[in-house]
TrEMBL record:
InterPro entries: YjbR-like_sf, YjbR/MT2646/Rv2570-like
Organism of provenance: Rhizobium freirei PRF 81
Protein name from the UniProt record: MmcQ/YjbR family DNA-binding protein
């Protein structure tokens, strides 16, 4: 039961950062039954459990981030070769997390919408 509370807290943190970034047309929803935020019907961030969120990012970008900060970004066999990057939510500060959310949003947003966002 308590893990749900933690996931809600994580979702609230993500929602706050998304709002502060003024990302347009973000919808809360679910992705494979897990809490997620979507743009254009596609999830750009998913709360996997009470320790991990998964961002949608290009594979080459994933590799860069894992090299840059392996204490935050990692992948399991499940994610190898997929444009999804797990990260340890307790290891990342709001400022960096917000930058990654913007990146993931840009990666998933429809082209027309991207043109409207600075």
């Amino acid at each position: 039961m308590s893990s749900n509370v933690d996931m809600d807290v994580i979702a609230e943190r993500l929602n706050r950062l998304v709002m502060q970034a003024r990302l347009p047309e973000v919808e809360p929803g679910t992705h494979y039954g897990l809490p997620a935020f979507k743009v254009g019907g596609k999830a750009f961030v998913t709360v996997k459990n009470n320790e991990t969120i998964v961002l949608s990012l290009p594979i080459d970008r994933k590799e860069q981030l894992m090299e840059m900060a392996p204490e935050i970004y990692f992948q399991t066999d499940h994610y190898v070769g997929w444009p999804s990057l797990p990260l340890r939510i307790t290891a990342i500060g709001d400022e960096e997390l917000q930058r990654r959310l913007i990146e993931a949003w840009r990666y998933r947003a429809p082209k027309k919408l991207l043109a409207t966002f600075g």
